[in-house]
Write a structure and sequence with these properties.
about 100 residues, mainly alpha, 2 helices
Length: about 100
C-alpha cells in the first residue's frame, strides 16, 4: 500500500487555488460595480437638481412614464389587435387625466 506524502502533491495546486479565488473575487466585485453603475444610469434622467438662492415653483411640461403590457397567444393577428386595443386604452386614460 502506497501513502501519499507532502512530496507527492501537485506543486501547482496552491497557486491554482489562489488564482481561482482571485478571479472569483474580481468577478463578484466587477458584477457589483457594474450593477450599481447601471442603476445610476437608469435613475439619472428621473431627477432634476437646481442650485441657487431663489426658490420658484415651476409647472412641469413633460413626464416620462414607462408603461408595459404583454399579450400572449397562438394567433399573431389576434394578439396584435389585442395589443393595439390595450395601447389605445392606456393612451385614452392618460389623455382623460389631462396629461396628454
Amino acid at each position: 500500500m502506497q501513502t501519499i506524502g507532502a512530496d507527492d502533491r501537485n506543486p501547482w495546486l496552491v497557486p491554482a487555488a489562489v488564482l481561482g479565488a482571485c478571479l472569483l473575487f474580481g468577478l463578484v466585485v466587477g458584477g457589483w460595480v457594474l450593477e450599481s453603475q447601471i442603476k445610476d444610469i437608469k435613475l439619472a434622467d428621473r431627477y432634476v437638481t437646481v442650485k441657487g438662492l431663489v426658490e420658484k415653483t415651476v409647472k412641469s411640461d413633460m413626464a416620462i412614464w414607462p408603461v408595459s403590457f404583454k399579450e400572449t397567444g397562438n394567433d399573431l393577428p389576434q394578439v396584435f389587435a389585442k395589443s393595439q386595443t390595450d395601447k389605445e386604452a392606456v393612451l385614452k386614460g392618460v389623455f382623460d387625466l389631462g396629461c396628454g
